[in-house]
TrEMBL record:
Organism of origin: Nocardioides cremeus
Record-linked Pfam families: ABC2_membrane (PF01061)
Swiss-Prot/TrEMBL keywords: Antibiotic resistance, Cell membrane, Membrane, Transmembrane, Transmembrane helix, Transport
Subcellular compartments: Cell membrane
Domain ABC transmembrane type-2 positions: 22-243
Transmembrane stretches, start-end: 24-42, 54-75, 96-119, 131-155, 162-181, 222-240
Protein name: Transport permease protein
PROSITE patterns linked to this entry: ABC_TM2
Length: 245
């Protein structure tokens, strides 16, 4: 893997995103808008509900948005022949995916900053732990969505098929991550499944930060999520095809 080639791929992706204003707006603003919508829903009904579910959504929304945009964008690059042209050059597959991950990772940093600052300042979300850790968890979770999006895009032949992976990859994690039912209250089989899903650990980290100043458990959860990110990138590099038949 070459750092120079990876950086060149990242710059190319960022340049493309800079000219795609709708995608950039979706990446940077949509999670904050969704969190704001949820706050508005609960404002006059249950003022404590937003503080209960808000931290979990700070993990879920970046993950979901980055997964969707990354999987569709990567597939579009392959169907247009761009990936095939890049791989003709001295570019390893891991260089390519690393560049995409770096580019979308930078976007995830800005996205997370916007979402967390809107939630904790304008919307009054109460967080006990350090806000910087909250941003870090959101960034790593955005990287998780990016890595999984890069991985599953290898198995889709059209943008419609890429979107179809969302119910298979994202929704089960959303249902079992502890947002609706605490993970330790799930039936034993579902709790076991939840234990092997990466989003569960991101949500656990957010919930810990919402109620505690300790960061030991948060770092452990982040390490698990980071391991899934690395694994998804390696698997994505192994299954990446030059183009869609």
């Amino acid at each position: 893997m070459s750092a120079r080639v990876t950086a060149a791929v990242a710059v190319r992706v960022l340049t493309q995103l800079r000219h795609d204003h709708r995608t950039m707006a979706m990446l940077l603003l949509l999670p904050a808008l969704l969190v704001s919508l949820l706050w508005w829903m609960f404002e006059d009904v249950d003022t404590g509900a937003f503080d209960r579910v808000g931290p979990a959504l700070l993990a879920i929304f970046p993950f979901t948005v980055m997964f969707l945009v990354t999987s569709v964008t990567t597939l579009r690059e392959r169907t247009s022949g761009t990936l095939e042209r890049l791989l003709v050059l001295p570019t390893a597959r891991l260089d390519l995916l690393g560049g995409y991950a770096a580019a979308f990772g930078l976007v995830a940093v800005v996205q997370s900053l916007v979402t967390v600052l809107v939630s904790t300042t304008l919307l009054g979300l109460e967080i006990t732990g350090p806000v910087a850790m909250l941003v870090l968890v959101a960034v790593v979770d955005g990287l998780l969505g990016t890595a999984l999006g890069l991985f599953v895009s290898a198995f889709a032949r059209s943008e419609f098929q890429a979107v179809q992976f969302m119910p298979a990859v994202v929704i089960p994690q959303l249902l079992l991550c502890g947002l609706f039912v605490p993970r330790d209250a799930l039936p034993p089989v579902l709790e076991t499944v939840s234990d092997v899903l990466p989003l569960s650990y991101a949500v656990d980290a957010m919930l810990t930060l919402s109620t505690s100043t300790g960061t030991g458990e948060v770092w452990r959860d982040l390490a698990v999520v980071a391991g899934f990110v690395a694994g998804a990138l390696v698997l994505g590099a192994a299954t990446l095809r030059r183009r869609t038949a």
